[in-house]
C-alpha cells in the first residue's frame, strides 16, 4: 500500500515548486517516491500528488511546501492500493480521435502506426493531450478548415504541448507556423513534441505573453490564429488579435465556457470579427471567426 498526499496550488509555478520540493530527500526522511503536478481541466486549479511508502508527517510536509500552498488549503492523505501504476496511467489516456487527427501516447505508438494525421503526445507538464473538450474542439476545427482553406501563416497562441501547431503542420504542410506560450516550461515541452513528431524546422517556438514578442510580429498578419486560452485573457487580447489576423483571415478560439461565449463573441464583433461556426461540446465553446 502507498500513501498519496494531495496539495492544492494557486498556479502552475507553485505546483511545480511543491512537486520538486517533495521529491527532494529531507532530514525527516519524508522523501516522496514519485510526485506529479497537474491542472484539473474541470476547475482550472493546480494539484500536486506525492506518493510515500507510509504516511509522512504532515507538520514536516507543511514546513516544506507551506509557502506555495493555496491560501487556507491543507494537504490531504489517502491510502492507495498497490497497482501497476504505469499500466493504469496509460490505460487512462487512450488515443483520442478529433476529425482526422488521432492523438496518442508513446505507449500506443506501435498500435497506431505512422500516418499523416497521427500525433504522439505524452501527458506531461504542459496542457494538450487532446483529452480535453477544448483541445478536441480546436483539432476538429483545424480539420474542417483544412478542407476549405490554405493558410500560409499560422499562429498557435498558448500552445501548451504544441499539439495544435503540430496538427496545423500536418493539415498545411507548406504553411509557416509559430507556436507560443507564456509559460517557458510549456514551450520546452512543445519543442520536444515538435521534434518527436518530425516537425522540427517547420514550427518556430516562442515564449511570450499574448503577442508581445518581435518574432510573433514578424509573420503578422496571420492567415490563421488558434488560441485555446480562457475567456478572460481572450477578451483582453481582442484588439491585439484584430491586428494580428489579416482581413479575411481566420481565428479559432476555445477555452470558453458555454455561458461565456456571448461576451467573447460581442467583444470580437467589436474588434472586427464575424462568427463562422460555434460548437459547444461538454459546455466548452470553440468559435471559428472571420476577420472582416
Ligand atoms: C488550455 S491550455 C491550451 C494548450 C493547447 N493549445 C491545447 O489546445 O491543448 C492554455 C495555454 O495557454 C497558455 N497561456 C495562458 N495565457 C496566455 C497568454 N496571455 N499568452 C500566451 N499563452 C498563454 C497557458 O500557459 C497554457 O499553456
What does the model show?
By secondary structure, the protein is an alpha/beta fold. It is built from 10 helices and 14 strands. It folds into 2 domains: 2-82, 2-Layer Sandwich (Alpha-Beta Plaits), CATH 3.30.70; 133-291, Rossmann fold, CATH 3.40.50. The chain has helices at 12-23, 58-65, 85-91, 109-112, 133-148, 163-171, 184-196, 214-218, 231-244, 261-270; strands at residues 2-9, 34-39, 46-52, 76-80, 96-98, 101-104, 118-120, 153-157, 176-181, 203-207, 222-228, 245-257, 273-279, 284-291. The longest helix is centred in the middle third of the chain and has 16 residues, at 133-148. The mean pLDDT is 90. It binds S-adenosylmethionine (SAM).
**Number of helical segments?**
10
User: What CATH first level of the largest domain would be assigned?
Assistant: Alpha Beta
For the sheet with most strands, the description reads: 7 strands, mixed
What would the principal axes of the Cα set say about the shape?
globular
Q: Provide the spatial order of strands within the biggest beta sheet.
A: 10-9-8-11-12-14-13
CATH superfamily of the largest domain: Vaccinia Virus protein VP39
**Share of β-strand residues:** 25-35%
Amino acid at each position: 500500500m502507498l500513501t498519496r498526499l494531495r496539495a492544492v496550488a494557486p498556479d502552475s509555478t507553485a505546483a511545480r515548486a511543491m512537486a520538486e520540493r517533495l521529491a527532494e530527500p529531507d532530514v525527516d526522511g519524508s522523501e516522496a517516491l514519485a510526485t506529479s503536478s497537474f491542472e484539473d481541466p474541470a476547475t482550472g486549479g493546480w494539484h500536486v500528488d506525492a506518493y510515500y511508502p507510509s504516511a509522512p508527517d504532515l507538520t514536516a510536509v507543511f514546513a516544506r511546501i507551506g509557502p506555495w500552498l493555496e491560501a487556507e488549503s491543507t494537504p490531504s492523505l489517502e491510502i492507495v492500493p498497490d497497482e501497476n501504476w504505469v499500466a493504469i496511467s496509460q490505460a487512462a489516456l487512450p488515443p483520442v480521435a478529433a476529425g482526422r487527427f488521432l492523438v496518442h501516447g508513446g505507449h500506443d505508438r506501435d498500435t497506431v502506426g505512422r500516418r499523416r494525421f497521427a500525433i504522439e503526445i505524452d501527458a506531461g507538464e504542459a496542457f494538450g493531450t487532446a483529452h480535453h473538450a477544448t483541445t478536441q474542439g480546436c483539432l476538429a476545427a483545424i480539420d474542417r478548415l483544412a478542407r476549405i482553406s490554405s493558410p500560409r501563416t499560422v499562429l498557435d497562441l498558448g500552445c501548451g504541448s504544441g499539439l495544435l501547431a503540430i496538427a496545423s503542420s500536418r493539415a498545411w504542410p507548406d504553411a509557416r507556423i509559430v507556436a507560443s506560450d507564456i509559460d517557458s516550461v510549456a514551450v520546452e515541452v512543445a519543442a520536444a513534441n515538435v521534434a518527436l513528431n518530425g516537425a522540427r524546422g517547420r514550427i518556430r517556438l516562442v515564449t511570450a505573453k499574448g503577442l508581445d514578442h518581435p518574432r510573433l510580429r514578424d509573420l503578422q498578419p496571420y492567415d490563421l490564429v488558434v488560441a485555446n486560452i480562457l475567456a478572460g485573457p481572450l477578451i483582453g487580447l481582442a484588439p491585439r488579435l484584430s491586428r494580428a489576423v489579416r482581413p479575411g483571415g481566420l481565428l479559432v478560439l476555445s477555452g470558453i465556457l458555454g455561458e461565456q461565449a456571448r461576451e467573447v463573441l460581442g467583444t470580437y464583433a467589436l474588434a472586427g470579427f464575424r462568427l463562422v461556426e460555434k460548437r459547444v461540446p461538454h459546455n466548452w465553446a470553440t468559435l471559428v471567426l472571420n476577420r472582416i
